[in-house]
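Q: Convert this sequence to structure tokens.
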Amino acid sequence: MPTPTRSICYSPASQLRTPWRLASEMWRDLKSSRELAWRLTVRDLSAKYRQSVLGLLWAFVPPIATTAIFVLFNRAGAINVGETAVPYPAFVLIGTVLWQLFVDSLNAPIQMVGKSKSILAKINFPREALILSAMGQAAFDFGIRALVLIPAFLYYRILPDWGIVALPAVLIAIMMLGCMIGMLLTPLSVLYGDVMFALPTITSLWFFLTPVVYNPPSNWPYSLLGSVNPVSPLLVAARDLFTLGTIQNIAWWPFSLVVFGVLLGLLAMWVLYRVSLPIIIERIGA
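A:
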């Protein structure tokens, strides 16, 4: 017997006119995309590291190189970050690893959908599989990159407190924030290559506006960076949990506000991704 295929009926009516039906279809496709997402993740990770000579060692290069540069600048007096809760090299290394998690989570959906354009135009499958696969790859890279923290913690005798059990929740929030922004930019990146060209410059500037290598500013107007910049509360909270076991260097209200905004924003971006992608795919295939 021939294998039954899933039929799709396209309608000129917007999916937003039937929100309950849209929500049901989104949840159904999310559940059915898990196996495909896993296979895509394994395939892409294998191809990514198999084609390089050093393989997984490349995951350690960015945080180590960034840490070495800023430690050198700090010792030379080119920058003055003041006192940090842990030795400055460990401080920068933790911040850089967390920052890279955000950047990877932002870039991953854009890159995943971008390289799947030909498949999207020819094969029908749950589009959520691409986002899940992208987040899986970002999580894997973070797990590998975080291994560099072990020797740093041992060398500087940093002993995380029991509060570190809350760290995974903050890490997920960082990934969700990056994914939310990535899903917002994905439709534009499929249509216009300028997005991919501009992202490295934008994230590089964003890096210096985020307390990755320095303490959160407390003086006005620089203290706004801890409130306006959504990455700041999450990154500072995660670094505090890493080193202190409790959140001390950021107020609870901006942290809670960002987490709440990320939850709502990610849901909104999922709807945008779901509604806009068929239109973009039709434009690609035209």
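Residues 226 and 232 are 5 Å apart (CA to CA).
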